[in-house]
Amino acid sequence: MTFSSSPIPGPSVEQPAEQTAVRPARRGPTWAGVAAMVAAGSVLSSGATLGGLIGYHEIEQRWGSDAVAASTRDAGSTGTASGVAASSDGPDWQQVAAAVSPSAVAIDVRTAQGEAEGTGVVLDEKGDIVTNNHVVSGASSITVMLADGRAFEARVVGADARTDLAVVRLVSAPEDLVPATFGDSAAVEPGAAVMALGTPLGLQNTVTTGIVSAVNRPVTASDGTDPAGTDATYVSAVQTDAAINPGNSGGPLVDASGAVIGINSSIASLASGADGQSGSIGLGFAIPAATVTMVVQQILQHGAVQHAALGVTAADGTQEADGATRSGALVHEVVQGSAAEAAGLRSGDLVVGVDDVPITGAAALTATINGLAPGTEHTVAVLREGKRTELTATLGTAATS
Prior knowledge:
The chain is mainly beta. It contains five helices and 24 strands. The strands form four sheets. Strands 2, 3, 4, 11, 12, 13, 14, 15 and 16 form a nine-stranded antiparallel sheet that branches. Strands 1, 18, 19, 20, 21, 22 and 23 form a seven-stranded mixed sheet that branches. A six-stranded antiparallel beta barrel has the order 5-6-7-10-9-8. The chain is globular and about 60 Å long. The two termini are about 30 Å apart.
């Protein structure tokens, strides 16, 4: 599957626009992740109606492609969560759940279309909470319920559609809020034990466990309003097999120490039933903690987010190197005056890596750049006429409208 270019202001990488088939969505962005199979996507926050019905977003199921279609609906310190002790016998999930649950909240949102539910994570004692942008987008009112059942009104502080993150603040925060501890998502490796906390299908204080099944998984988001998919955004996600269902959106994915390593945002699912709706099949995606803290800090300090820009137009491509075919992001154009031009990138280069992150296509390049900060220096590996070259790029700042 090829991905359409993003409508978000100042994209780091753009691909030629091609139409992506999307089924009508009730609310919230539709996500597509790059992987070895294609599945129908379902939303992650519960779209409640009178009678408690759940609303889902769907995207067309396709096979034989290199993309997983997924969809969504609906900073703190780093280290070990308070009260969780290390154990050589494996994770003590009861201890982890007890320590982290007070930091996970249920979010009820009212919009012009109805009600929806999601999850959030307490950032600080002032009442700041991080969640997904699609959970609170278009909200006319927001109610946050703590793990002990107390409910508080909240308002949006700021949101970033490109990374699907938002910060809300309790109007009258209690004095006993328990902020979450954020871990080092860059150190997360496949096989690591994790727990997801949230409000799946409206069931608050639900925990599920699993492992990290992949890292740096490119996930593409679209709100489904443009048939051509030009509203797509990109995230380099942590993939997990911990059960995630509608309502988990915006909730924490924590490691065995109780530290938040990601914010759950989307799932891949196989179509089930006449309407194509289904829940978790063990392919969930979380926005890495490093991206979360970068975005949250900017929202709290400035009310808006600046994104990094490499400055190339690219598409999926391949090159022959060392007797094998390599996939990557094929550079079509280098923007004049950009970080890419200063680094020495050229039209025809195939980008195959950024630092230690493999780049297998244009979506992967965009997702990786989106998770980095403007002004930071990175190694960009390219194939140029079949030979590997490593260039140093200091990322610029994406334009805003």
